[in-house]
Amino acid sequence: MLGCLAPHPPHVVYAENPEQNEAFSEGGWETLRWGYNRLARKLKTIDYDAMVIFTPHWQTYIGTHFLGLPKFKSKSVDPVFPNIFRFNYDISVDVDLAEKMCEVAGESGIVTKMMRNPDFRIDYGTITSCHMLNPDWDKPLVTISSNRNADYYSAEVMNEQASALGEACARAIEESGKKVVLISSHSLSHRHFVTESPLPEDMSREHIYNHSQYVWDMKLVDLMRSGKMREVIDIMPEFTEQTIAETEAGGLTWMMAAMGYPNYPAEIYGYQSVIGTGNLIAAWNPMEATREIVL
Amino acid sequence: MTEPEILFGIYCPPHPQPLLSPEASDGYGKLRDAYETCRKRIEESEADLILVYSTTWPSIIGHQIQAHPEPEWVHVDDDFHFLGSMPYKFRMDVEFADAFKNAAESRGLQSRTIAYDGFPIDTGSVVALKLLNPDNRIPACIVSSNMYANRAETIVLGKSARDAIQEQGKKAVVVVVSSLSNRMFTEHIDPSEDRIHSAKDDEWNRKILEFFDDGRLEDLSQLSREIHGQIRVQKVVAYKPAWWMSATMGQHNNYTGEVLAYEALHGSGGAVVILTPAAESVGDKEFDEDDVEHYHGDRGVLDKGML
């Protein structure tokens, strides 16, 4: 397993101008995009069978759900930024692996459900992160919904539940014998500006929402560089509360639990604000021989 | 100046069960019957606009207003996908949407209209419009609920809607799509055994319904913060529907209230209520929060009194 922290502001897809997206841009957010491009090139050199993504934008309150049909083809329009993201997608799902995860998680006492409605629309978080990491779309996905434990209970409960799910998914992956790339799709600090410049890609307008958010984000980056992922997860409830972080969905906790809380340095590919939020691209590569100091 | 003509208001839940599986429990069936009563009431009225405020359409960039003339899609709910798909094709009042946006901007709000093929209209709006206006006899308008907006911004948004209704000379039915208590069970349940998640939620819901039944909408608006703290899952900053509904309908308690149904929807509180403007007022509350007319944005406290 290799793990990627892959934020999903639709702005980065918009800025890339892929043929699947209807909106056209003049660019923008290069620090993130170039980081993504570099990580995507690295993933091309790695042999793996599927991408397993945990997305905050498929929000479920009744357990954890998994995509359960082999193909989904439709258009995803971002409900918040429809002006920049109207993406025509055609994705494949590794249903066997999804079912295995659903089964093992269920045996662990986690409430689960397979999603088998063919009209279901794939969320823009899944599409943005997966497109930026694999613009060729030549790997099947497993998409996991985010159960909203932080809303219903607390960030502490979220941490516990997401850890249990991560451990269950790791067991399922091991039993399947497959090699996967795990993707935790979210920003770090997550306070947005509520206005948008007339040209969304006007980089003269882009900055973090406030300095407190920035300091917290950098605290996490420092811990990641130092290979202290257990500590990152331990302070996750406070970080989440202080920065309204998108970690509240449980993605990073899920991924770190699945990877056994790495104690080696993360590869840092880029950090940049998008409409005020703090976005970090990072990877955890368990193979020391190919692990890099990127930034 | 003449008052805007708001014929009546409807408060209804966003869950898909009354649309997709009304037969699954007596409660879902009663909610469906209540929607049916509302539908007939709308048809018998002289309404020429259905204005929907949906708590299941969150926005970030200000307040978004649906302005596609005929939005069409097949919607599937994130949680209740197994109940089936919801194909829809609605008729929107584009002229009103533009007027609403302009009115919002005139009062200092960030607002924009949305008109994109395939835009994902939310579950609550789809359920409400399919059940209340199944033949698209009356054009509709949907406005989002900004996830960061609090009381002042939401009240100003309601006043903007009122401005637009008046300016356009519309006869409007105002629809608010929202649960009462919104804590659902976190496990799959047998619908026939559905119930309100807790006795506390049920007690608060019934208190809110007493207010609705008495027509005390502005009193409910004033109690919004308390309601949010007591029975709302803290997904957004505040319980806003009563703020918006009261501001849109005129900020008073002069209504005839009809609670048509109150049932559990996977543990949350679902009620269908009609509020019709009437002559007499009830209530004994005094209010001390500002009645804001214009939104000035954040007050920039951090920039003042530098340490």
Shape of chain B: globular
How many domains of chain B? The number is 1
Specify the CATH homologous superfamily of chain B: LigB-like
Major sheet: arrangement of strands of chain A: 7-2-8-1-10-9
Sheet with the most strands of chain B?
6 strands, mixed
Strand count of chain A: 10
Structural class of chain A: alpha/beta
Largest sheet of chain A: 6 strands, mixed
Protein described:
The complex is a heterodimer of chains A (295) and B (307). Chain A starts with a strand and ends in an 11-residue tail after the last strand. Chain A has a single domain (2-290), classed as LigB-like (Protocatechuate 4,5-dioxygenase, Chain B). Chain A has a 6-stranded mixed sheet with strand order 7-2-8-1-10-9, with helices on both faces. Chain A has a two-stranded parallel sheet with strand order 3-6. Chain A has helices spanning 10-16, 30-44, 95-107, 124-133, 149-152, 155-176, 211-225, 229-234, 236-243, 251-258, and strands at residues 2-5, 50-60, 64-67, 71-77, 86-92, 112-115, 141-147, 180-184, 267-274, 277-284. In chain A, helix 6 crosses helix 9 (236-243). Chain A is an alpha/beta fold and 295 residues long. Chain B has 307 residues and is an alpha/beta fold. Chain B has helices spanning 17-20, 26-44, 94-106, 123-132, 151-168, 199-213, 217-222, 224-231, 241-249, and strands spanning 5-12, 49-59, 63-66, 72-75, 86-89, 111-114, 140-146, 171-177, 255-265, 268-277. Chain B has a 6-stranded mixed sheet, sandwiched between helices. Chain B has a two-stranded parallel sheet with strand order 3-6. Chain B has a two-stranded antiparallel sheet with strand order 4-5. In chain B, helix 3 packs across helix 5 (151-168) and helix 5 packs parallel to helix 9 (241-249). Chain A binds chain B through residues 58-63, 65, 75, 77, 79-83, 86, 111, 113, 115-117, 119-121, 145, 147-148, 151-152, 192, 194-196, 210, 275, and chain B through 57-62, 74-76, 78-79, 81-82, 84-85, 110, 114, 116-120, 122, 146, 148, 183-188, 233-235, 266, 302.
